[in-house]
Design a protein that fits this description.
- The structure is a single chain.
- This protein is mainly α and about 160 residues long.
- Helix 3 packs across helix 4 and helix 4 crosses helix 5.
- The protein is elongated and about 90 Å long.
């Protein structure tokens, strides 16, 4: 509308906007009507299935579970006497109980973590004791990195 006046352009824009909004509202109303019809059909089908099921079967009522009596079992102190520290450690061959035993021992004595790092490396310690635990032990001991200690060679 290149030669139309401002009022004619506004009237045409308003008419086009009204038609667009009316068409969208009509489409939305139609979708909602279809959705409600589907929901009503599904509800009727569920009610029919429930009625058919209750006519044919007797409902089974299970008793409510009884609360278990709360008993605190005494916790035994871990026994570390049967661990051979000179034996070669292969992580893949350890059982779950052995890994838990190593972790319990390390929680009691953090020096065990540093000994493991010195002997097998920090990566192995992280796999055995968890990365977070090794980081916590190093942080608590004031270390922010792997402590290499003294070297094995002697200065001449």
């Amino acid at each position: 509308m290149p030669h139309a006046s401002e009022t004619e352009r506004r009237a045409a824009t308003d008419r086009q906007l009204h038609e667009t909004v009316t068409a969208k509202a009509s489409a939305k109303a139609s979708e909602w009507k279809q959705y409600r019809a589907q929901r009503a059909e599904a509800k009727a089908a569920r009610a029919e299935a429930t009625a058919a099921q209750t006519d044919n079967e007797v409902p089974v009522v299970l008793p409510a579970p009884r609360p278990a009596a709360f008993v605190v079992a005494p916790v035994a102190e871990p026994q570390f006497g049967d661990v051979d520290d000179d034996q070669e450690l292969v992580l893949e061959n350890l059982t779950r109980e052995q890994v838990l035993d190593w972790r319990n021992r390390a929680a009691a004595d953090h020096r065990l973590v540093f000994d493991h790092i010195d002997r097998y490396g920090e990566r192995s310690a992280q796999r055995l004791f968890t990365r977070a635990f090794v980081a916590q032990v190093q942080r608590l001991s004031g270390l922010e990195h792997l402590e290499l200690g003294c070297t094995t060679w002697v200065h001449a």
